[in-house]
């Protein structure tokens, strides 16, 4: 039982920080950052929703939101948005299910098998959340790197060259955390599910055996006079 609680708490720890990292990554503005910091008087960051410029000397930041979501955007931007939002939703529900499945939470306290199944469901959700999260963040980073490398290879200088920033790193870290938490919950909780199922089956068989034995003992010790009286009462009632 202590090992079960340990795995639950470790999974909950990783799930909590993974959900936070994914949400921060999705809604921050530094998926791309200019690579020539030494030549610039400002730091330029591009996110999934807006672009921000921070003055190096006074730290003043100005942000410009992109056009409407229905406007024409690059495939990289649109798909990364969709995958990160999907990862946020799945990981959020996975963490919520995990909290409900913890043994220390007073939710269905008399149904340990159902709580284990809730933990398994949360593990599956976290695994599913890690897939679009890691796909979106890694694909975005690789696309930025390939674009920058191609410009350098062809000696093309556009004034500003970008590399992937800390928001992209947070997306990768959150996705890996979801994979770790989901794997821990699905594998370890499944083992405890088999053990709990066997215990519940044994307890049910034991209770059934006691019930049958009690019935036999009651019938054996039933006095003959009471049996005869019951039969006569039944005959009189039918008449």
TrEMBL record:
<keyword id="KW-0813">Transport</keyword>
<keyword id="KW-0472">Membrane</keyword>
<keyword id="KW-1003">Cell membrane</keyword>
<dbReference type="GO" id="GO:0005923">
    <property type="term" value="C:bicellular tight junction"/>
</dbReference>
<comment type="function">
    <text>Claudins function as major constituents of the tight junction complexes that regulate the permeability of epithelia.</text>
</comment>
<dbReference type="GO" id="GO:0006811">
    <property type="term" value="P:monoatomic ion transport"/>
</dbReference>
<keyword id="KW-0796">Tight junction</keyword>
<keyword id="KW-0406">Ion transport</keyword>
<keyword id="KW-0812">Transmembrane</keyword>
<protein>
    <recommendedName>
        <fullName>Claudin</fullName>
    </recommendedName>
</protein>
<comment type="similarity">
    <text>Belongs to the claudin family.</text>
</comment>
<dbReference type="GO" id="GO:0005198">
    <property type="term" value="F:structural molecule activity"/>
</dbReference>
<feature type="transmembrane region" description="Helical">
    <location>
        <begin position="7"/>
        <end position="27"/>
    </location>
</feature>
<keyword id="KW-0965">Cell junction</keyword>
<feature type="transmembrane region" description="Helical">
    <location>
        <begin position="169"/>
        <end position="192"/>
    </location>
</feature>
<dbReference type="InterPro" id="IPR004031">
    <property type="entry name" value="PMP22/EMP/MP20/Claudin"/>
</dbReference>
<dbReference type="InterPro" id="IPR006187">
    <property type="entry name" value="Claudin"/>
</dbReference>
<dbReference type="Pfam" id="PF00822">
    <property type="entry name" value="PMP22_Claudin"/>
</dbReference>
<keyword id="KW-0460">Magnesium</keyword>
<keyword id="KW-1133">Transmembrane helix</keyword>
<feature type="transmembrane region" description="Helical">
    <location>
        <begin position="120"/>
        <end position="142"/>
    </location>
</feature>
<dbReference type="GO" id="GO:0160184">
    <property type="term" value="P:paracellular transport"/>
</dbReference>
<dbReference type="GO" id="GO:0005886">
    <property type="term" value="C:plasma membrane"/>
</dbReference>
<comment type="function">
    <text>Forms paracellular channels: coassembles with CLDN19 into tight junction strands with cation-selective channels through the strands, conveying epithelial permeability in a process known as paracellular tight junction permeability. Involved in the maintenance of ion gradients along the nephron. In the thick ascending limb (TAL) of Henle's loop, facilitates sodium paracellular permeability from the interstitial compartment to the lumen, contributing to the lumen-positive transepithelial potential that drives paracellular magnesium and calcium reabsorption.</text>
</comment>
<dbReference type="InterPro" id="IPR017974">
    <property type="entry name" value="Claudin_CS"/>
</dbReference>
<dbReference type="InterPro" id="IPR003927">
    <property type="entry name" value="Claudin16"/>
</dbReference>
